[in-house]
Amino acid sequence: xxxxxxxxxxxxxxxxxxxxxxxxxxxxxxxxxxxxxxxxxxxxxxxxxxxxxxxxxxxxxxxxxxxxxxxxxxxxxxxxxxxxxxxxxxxxxxxxxxxxxxxxxxxxxxxxxxxxxxxxxxxxxxxxxxxxxxxxxxxxxxxxxxxxxxxxxxxxxxxxxxxxxxxxxxxxxxxxxxxxxxxxxxxxxxxxxxxxxxxxxxxxxxxxxxxxxxxxxxxxxxxxxxxxxxxxxxxxxxxxxxxxxxxxxxxxxxxxxxxxxxxxxxxxxxxxxxxxxxxxxxxxxxxxxxxxxxxxxxxxxxxxxxxxxxxx
Amino acid sequence: xxxxxxxxxxxxxxxxxxxxxxxxxxxxxxxxxxxxxxxxxxxxxxxxxxxxxxxxxxxxxxxxxxxxxxxxxxxxxxxxxxxxxxxxxxxxxxxxxxxxxxxxxxxxxxxxxxxxxxxxxxxxxxxxxxxxxxxxxxxxxxxxxxxxxxxxxxxxxxxxxxxxxxxxxxxxxxxxxxxxxxxxxxxxxxxxxxxxxxxxxxxxxxxxxxxxxxxxxxxxxxxxxxxxxxxxxxxxxxxxxxxxxxxxxxxxxxx
Lengths: 312, 255
What we know:
By secondary structure, chain A is mainly alpha-helical. In chain A, about 75% of the residues lie in helices and about 0% in strands.
């Protein structure tokens, strides 16, 4: 099939990465904790990639990305818990259902708010993010299972390294194919100039909606993998600060660069968690001083992100 | 056959009547120039025809089909393409992508083909790329395919915008002040390009222009506007001699 033939290099590279990571895990060079962090990095990359489609490629600024990540997480947590899913093959459809749920809500909310531009859109998405956070805080009023502000407990642990790795690589490939097709081109046209896009016949609204829905879908899958990795969810994991994390990863990596998002996601998770290990106990709380300093330095050194697109 | 018929077009902004009952006809294959002093409402007429402004009153017919108040993005599919007064290229996209986007909009494949890279994807992409190269060559931009559009000199950006519009294979091309901000040499080049376009693509052209020389040289018919109204219409020769036109351009005392 063309899909696999076209992606042969990425697939080969992924297999190599997979084997080396597996070897490191197998020979016990790293703790369980590091394994968990590696998985988390994959999840963060996936959700950030969603935001990169929305913001980096299509230019639609969103401050509510974590809300869709949260929707995916809660849907998956709910479904896997009430059906007591243990089998990984039963889990895969639930993953995609969770992604679809986040995508559907993204679609519905996108219909009114994607008519807005720039700062107005930022405010609207921020509002939606807050709305979801408050709903999650009060979710125990709908069903006890959700746990409301006490958090969602007892979620089956189903996210394995193999599953997360295969899903993330597969979705990166699909995203790549979308970006390097006429749809990706139209998204970039819209980011450049909406009026000009309309003048060549692009239905800018429906293309923006498509990018937004797809980006939310990716966030939803990321959230689902997260829920079944940590087995515990709390509404505070899905607030504006989390949205800003994704935003930072997209900007640090380079707007409109898939590779950039992957590197930045690894660096971001590696750095935050790495500092926890490296720093002596007395100053570990000060890591939120070092991280912003690093961000400032990075933005001065590479204002367009790590992977600015080469201009040939 | 009339490619475009505009009947009694009106548009107000607040209390100002920007366009006040304009009517004209563009016959198939002909070039019509719209001239007039600053603020005469020329660009507003374009924005009304292409759906960027909402028509207050009047009708626009395209090959007999009523296209009044059609959304802008639908018009290229019918065969109407335009350029903008203040250049609207996809400035961070390459020259090649600027042209390719229009071709792929016109003749594309679906999402499934994109994701799974079906035969249709490769066929359409291949065709589009070939066509894009032809257009780029025709507009003498070869060798600059990979330049970001905003790195081109001004005159070449103008040509690229026309190339992008023609990539839609329109039946009618609306060109808004192509000579704006150009030096006389660039205007001469542009004039030559437009003539070649007319010959090769056999389409109707409506051109708004400030620079009389450019319009007079290329138009079959000229519509003169002033204060939102049409003050006369005729061949370039008639227009040049008309008292009202000289008055609008130079003031009464020059008559």
